[in-house]
Amino acid sequence: MGVLDSKVPSGPLADKWTKHKNEIELVNPANKRNIDVIVVGTGLAGGSAAATMAELGYNVKTFCYQDSPRRAHSIAAQGGVNAAKNYQGDGDSVYRLFYDTVKGGDYRSREANVHRLAEVSTNIIDQCVAQGVPFAREYGGLLDNRSFGGVLVSRTFYAKGQTGQQLLLGAYAAMNRQIQRGKIKSYTRHEMLDLVLVDGKARGIIARNLVTGEIERHSAHAVVIASGGYGNLFFLSTYCMGANVMAAWKAHKRGAFFANPCFTQIHPTCIPVSGDHQSKLTLMSESLRNDGRIWVPKKLEDAKAIREGKLKPTDLAEEDRDYYLERRYPAFGNLVPRDVASRAAKERCDAGYGVNKTGEAVYLDFDAAIMRYGREKALTSGMKNPDDKTVRKLGEEVVEAKYGNLFQMYEKIVDQNPYKTPMMIYPAVHYTMGGLWVDYNLMTTIPGCYAAGEANFSDHGANRLGASALMQGLADGYFVLPYTIGDYLSDDIRTGPIPTETPEFEEAENNVRERIQKLMSAKGEHSVDYYHKKLGKIMWNKCGMARNAKELQEAMDEIAELRKDFWANVKVTGVADGKNQELEKAGRVADFLELGELFAMDALERNESCGGHFREEYQTPEGEALRDDKNFTFVSAWEYKGDPRKAKLHKEELVYENIEVKTRSYK
Amino acid sequence: MKLFLKIWRQKNASTKGKMMEYTLEGIESDMSFLEMLDVLNEDLIARGEEPVEFDHDCREGICGTCSLMINGRPHGPDSRITVCQLHMRSFNDGDTIVIEPWRAKAFPVIKDLIVDRTAFDRIQQAGGYISVNTSGRPVDANAIPIEKDAADASFNAATCIGCGACVAACKNASAMLFTSAKVSQFALLPQGQVEAADRVLNMVRQMDLEGFGNCTNTGACEVECPKGISLENIARMNREYLAASVKG
Amino acid sequence: MSGVISSSLARKFVMALSGLFLVIFLVLHVTINLASVISPEFFNEASHFMGYNPIVQYAMQPILILGVIVHFVMGFVLEYQNRAARGVSYAKYQGSANAPWVSRNMIYSGLVVLAFLGLHFYDFWVHEMVYKYVEAKPEDPTRYYAETVEKFAPFWRTVLYVVSFVLLSLHLWHGFQSSFQSMGVNNKYTSGIKTFTKLFAVLVPLAFAFIAVYHHLNPITH
């Protein structure tokens, strides 16, 4: 086991969490008033954790770089949140959700954590409804569900196309209640620039006030990092522009191990890149795959004609279309998990069947769904023998009610009407399964430093299933972390306030100031975006959907080279003691330039294909991922050693006692 | 595409700002408006000037961070979108585009086009929640059936992204549409009705304290709202407020 | 006044209620005025009643004047606060893109109507006060029709009156329906209310204008 102790409780899987909750230390309410906790990030995980801990009685300080906690990028999640409620009576259960998640993650996640996630999933829905989250309902007034990729039941709760916003507003409202009570102090437009350790324990952070540029010291008895994922490493992604790895990376450099950095989710249904000016990619919810059929032309010459604008997709006969997901995976069809769907799209486009100018797009077609819904609607409205036009009109209305906002978003961006012509989609970086290594209590390898939500290496293994990110963020924040943190804080009831006038804070602050000084005084050849785009290209081309040893090695060298160039030649305009977006970006890109190298090294180290990590050397004759369970059933946890490539690998062996490890098949 | 830009530049909250003019060439029609500004900023950086600071984050129309007054309209000429969803195909070669920050006493300028919207947070802190313990054990979600129409109306109010376009558009810089959306979201649900009276009184009091203007029912907010929040919410808040005041 | 009514919503209610009250007064006023076109005798009777009935004179008249004052003072207070709420004004502001002219310029249509009220008071109310209390002339139930018609003899006054009625129409066009929204009425009847208020906003000022023009064109020939 080495230095990694996952602290998974003993006993039968289904009883572990209950047993653990009963056995851990608690802090009595009077003592909680004497304990401070810092939460960095106010998305679903951070927001819900902050609200819950404040409600329990701790003094909480929250930090976010946005101007309001409500704007964290959890807000952009469209599709929904999973919960094993079995309201549809389709055979769902805690075990099935647990099983689907472990299998979906390609057997690279920790069994006990995933089971706990499935257990508390049902509480999330109860909690959110009580808070007034307006989930979609059926006419009977009960909650509605839909289906997502990689599962055979309908367990996804949703609020039209903006489930993330509604859930975050719920957590934000809970936070507001505690802010009003004075139990949470909310620092907005603040960024954590370093973690402060006192006697080896996390005791505070150094933050920069992004408006005034002031460097501030904040102390606490524990620090929770809930700052999200690091997909912006790729420059182009579905992440928000400000998403960064700074908090997690600083914790890593202070001693927290970074787990599975190469496990990245590439989401199959995003709007394709249109040009070099592109700053961000927009996701089209996975829920669209409930009704949309994915295809490319069967013949190369048709694909070419479409690319040149000589042929319209709607003119292509049914027999000339290749519904490749339905062809390759008859059991799950268009609803295969994300990694599988993404890879299949790449395979077709690489083979020359891509359908947009750049050859990197496939169709997502609603024509069949529109006609099917139209006929159904005509029947229920009592129409006999309606003509095709009427059916189409009725069908479009049904589809609009289901996905109207997504279709509108597509039309605004692409300037094409998706009701009339199929959508064009292509995979894009969407989520990172990797993150800070945490034990069962969500504590990192630094005592007192916790990680929640996407920021930890989480419960998703090598691939996350749709609608599971919201579930995990809220599970961590509402139901897990506020209790497990008490176990640690019970030792701190007599510690008293942590002073900030100490050498440890001094050292961390100087460290931060020096770095800012160094960034501001670099020679100034190229803008920050110039480096970020270059890094993104390396990552996408060599560490993207398909990877091989040679290119990963090249990526490591190129990134190291780029990092050197960055520190020598980056140009940061403006001043350090005021609002300065360029300085903010520079600090974030500097971290990405370190993480990128570790990412490539992790991918190089993992000589197998699993989930979102596809190594070209390791595939079946049919092109499916080939896992190596004998040698790689472990979590890679990297210890910082001064330079990304000198990082030391620790392995947490994964043990599956309750689930049979087998080849993942969606055929 | 060649464009002439007039942009508000202001160093910080305590200095005076002014409109500056820039000429920009090589803009493509499928760029988003913010990507056009990215191009401008890269130009400025290359020339050694400070780039124009503007708020933006998700760039997909949901976080509500972006906030630009473009040619006298919040989020620009198109309806039902935020600036980040606005594309340059809505403009023509040779156009002059005036870009300003939201203007309201309650939204002071922080820098260039960035304003401070924490007034919105404070309005919600005053009562925009249901007092249910997160660590409690609430009843099963389906134990409270909610009529679909009420749930949908609540959802429609809850789609507000808090961008502040309503305040920016209103000739009175009134925050009624925002506040009423937040009030309505809870007032329409059975869970929210318990505290409805206190909620509306407290949120309106905070709204007034922040220095927003009075509503004169011009309807500009509804037209400019990227999420199409309806004026009905304002009427509902007026009703709720009247009832709450009478009850005392 | 802003100290007394500290909530913006309360100020809206006051504005709406005083406005609705004045609308009711307009109905009464236009009804009696129309009589001047149809039956001079009835007009004289009604006017005399209004001029000498103690309830009208000592209860209703002061309430009406108070209603007018509350409405316009509150209008000024709101306008002042609303301008202050903007702070720095926009270099470019396209108000016409999202709200009709009438709704954005209530202060101007209101000011014109207020100025008109000044003239109207001078023309009729001051005249009555002088007649009754300063010169203390005896009651004469037959004088009203002739006095009214005579007022509209000058072309300039008729024009001023007609222009004011146009502005009154614009003020009512937004204000009448807006008062329902302010009081929280927004339901299935709203579109009906809107149609009614718009018809009202056109027809009532039109009737006033018609009366003024009619008397101008039909002077009493002795």
UniProtKB/TrEMBL annotation, chain A:
Question: What range(s) does the Fumarate reductase/succinate dehydrogenase flavoprotein-like C-terminal domain occupy?
Answer: 532-666
Cellular component (GO) terms are: plasma membrane
Is the keyword rRNA-binding assigned to this protein? no
Record GO biological process:
anaerobic respiration
Q: What is its EC number?
A: 1.3.5.1
Q: What kind of membrane protein is this, topologically?
A: Peripheral membrane protein
Q: Where is the FAD-dependent oxidoreductase 2 FAD-binding domain?
A: 36-470
Q: Where in the cell is it found?
A: Cell membrane
The entry assigns this protein to a family as follows: Belongs to the FAD-dependent oxidoreductase 2 family. FRD/SDH subfamily.
Q: Does the keyword ATP-binding apply?
A: no
What is the designated name of this protein?
A: succinate dehydrogenase
Database matches in InterPro entries: FAD-dep_OxRdtase_2_FAD-bd (IPR003953), FAD/NAD-bd_sf (IPR036188), Fum_R/Succ_DH_flav-like_C_sf (IPR037099), Fum_Rdtase/Succ_DH_flav-like_C (IPR015939), SdhA/FrdA/AprA (IPR030664), Succ_DH/Fum_Rdt_flav_su (IPR011280), Succ_DH/fumarate_Rdtase_cat_sf (IPR027477)
What cofactors does the UniProt entry give for this protein?
FAD
Catalytic function, reaction form = a quinone + succinate = fumarate + a quinol
- Could you say which enzyme class this protein belongs to? oxidoreductase
**Which residues are catalytic?**
R338
From TrEMBL, chain B:
Q: Name one GO molecular function term.
A: 2 iron, 2 sulfur cluster binding
Gene3D superfamilies in the cross-refs: 3.10.20.30, Alpha-helical ferredoxin
Coiled coil regions, renumbered to chain: none
> Native species of this protein?
Croceitalea dokdonensis DOKDO 023
Q: Which domain of life is it from?
A: Bacteria
What InterPro entries does UniProt report for this protein, alphabetically?
2Fe-2S_ferredoxin-like_sf (IPR036010), 2Fe-2S_ferredoxin-type (IPR001041), 2Fe2S_fd_BS (IPR006058), 4Fe4S_Fe-S-bd (IPR017896), Beta-grasp_dom_sf (IPR012675), Helical_ferredxn (IPR009051), SDH/FRD_Iron-Sulfur (IPR050573), Succ_DH/fum_Rdtase_N (IPR025192)
Q: Domain 4Fe-4S ferredoxin-type spans what residues?
A: 151-181
Q: Which cofactor does it need?
A: [3Fe-4S] cluster; [2Fe-2S] cluster
According to the entry, every stretch annotated as the 2Fe-2S ferredoxin-type domain falls at 18-103
Pfam families linked to this entry:
Fer2_3, Fer4_8
Q: What family is this protein classified in? A: Belongs to the succinate dehydrogenase/fumarate reductase iron-sulfur protein family.
**Protein name per its UniProtKB record:** Succinate dehydrogenase/fumarate reductase iron-sulfur subunit
GO biological process: one example: respiratory electron transport chain
State the PROSITE patterns in the record: 2FE2S_FER_1, 2FE2S_FER_2, 4FE4S_FER_2
Automatic annotation (TrEMBL), chain C:
Keywords for this entry?
Membrane, Transmembrane, Transmembrane helix
Q: Is Membrane among this UniProt entry's keywords?
A: yes
This protein's record includes keyword Transmembrane = yes
What stretches pass through the bilayer?
12-38, 58-80, 101-122, 155-176, 196-217
- InterPro entries named in the record: Cytochrome_b-558, SQR/QFR_C/D
How is this protein annotated for GO cellular component?
Answer: membrane
Q: NCBIfam families, per this entry?
A: sdhC_b558_fam
Name the record gives this protein: Succinate dehydrogenase cytochrome b subunit
Classification from the root reads: Bacteria, Pseudomonadati, Bacteroidota, Flavobacteriia, Flavobacteriales
